[in-house]
Amino acid sequence: MAEHPKTHKPPETALNTQPTLKFVTAATLGATLLVLSGMALTATVVLLVVATPLLISCGPVLVLAAIVMLLVAAVFLSAGGFVVATLSVLAWIYSYATGKHPGGSEQLYHATKALKRKAKVMRDKAREYGCQMQNMAQEVTQTQESQPQPQEK
């Protein structure tokens, strides 16, 4: 008797009540939400009927007030965004200046090197073109000096 494990088995004749319980719960919840949404719709229609004359008579003023409020909100949100952007840029610059190598500093280093390289190439080209122009100007002046001048009468 000590060798047999004790296991409890439910009787096989019991009905499986879980799907029924799920259905009843879902139906109750669905009916409750349906009633609440109906009440919200009814309240919306009643308030719209009551407020329509007020909205029609005060419409022009309310539209202008709404536009002003939207513009004020946009200005405040933009200013806040600019402040956040400025603070994050200043924090990045501070980290970069103190040598902490923030994200993107390696890309900045490579971009700086590429710009310096390109500036050197452009400087060399400008010097080359300057020398070419100087040589061309000297040739033009030499050819003008070597040509005989027409005499005026």
UniProtKB/TrEMBL annotation:
Coiled coil: none annotated. This is Oleosin 1. Keywords: Lipid droplet, Membrane, Transmembrane, Transmembrane helix. The lineage of its organism: Eukaryota, Viridiplantae, Streptophyta, Embryophyta, Tracheophyta. InterPro entries: Oleosin. It is a multi-pass membrane protein. GO terms for cellular component: membrane; monolayer-surrounded lipid storage body. GO terms for biological process: lipid storage; post-embryonic development; reproductive structure development. It comes from Cinnamomum micranthum f. kanehirae. The chain crosses the membrane at residues 23-49, 61-94. Belongs to the oleosin family. The keyword Cell inner membrane does not apply. It is found in: Lipid droplet; Membrane. PANTHER family: OLEOSIN.
